């Protein structure tokens, strides 16, 4: 099954950008008091859903 970034809101398969996640983890490790902003060209719902997934993955690690 192919993944489509905007399909995540419809429950379609979705893969986060692993290299971006690793970069954010390293950045937060170096600058723990920093604010990380995720910008999305999609909707507010898409950006919030993606940020929530990313936050959950970072917290798990």
Helix content: 40-55%
- Beta-strand percentage? under 5%
Mean pLDDT: 77
What is the CA-CA span between the terminal residues? Answer: 27 Å
Number of strand elements: 0
The overall number of domains is 1
The largest sheet is: none
Alpha-beta content class: mainly alpha
Uncertain regions: pLDDT < 50 for 5+ in a row?
none
* Cα gyration radius (Å): 12 Å
Shape: globular
* SSE arrangement, N to C: HH
Helical stretch tally: 2
Describe this structure in words.
The structure is a single chain. With 61 residues, the chain is mainly α. The protein has one domain. Helix content is 49%, strand content 0%. It has two helices and no strands. It has helices at 18-30, 44-60. The chain is globular and about 35 Å long. The mean pLDDT is 77.
Produce the secondary structure layout.
Blueprint: H1 18-30, H2 44-60
Task: Provide a short characterization of the protein structure.
The protein is mainly alpha-helical.
What key attributes describe this structure?
mainly alpha, globular, 61 residues
């Amino acid at each position: 099954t192919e993944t489509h970034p905007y399909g995540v809101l419809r429950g379609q398969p979705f893969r986060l950008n692993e290299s971006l996640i690793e970069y954010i983890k390293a950045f937060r490790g170096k600058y723990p008091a920093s604010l990380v902003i995720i910008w999305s060209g999609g909707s507010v719902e898409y950006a919030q859903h993606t940020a929530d997934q990313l936050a959950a993955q970072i917290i798990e690690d």
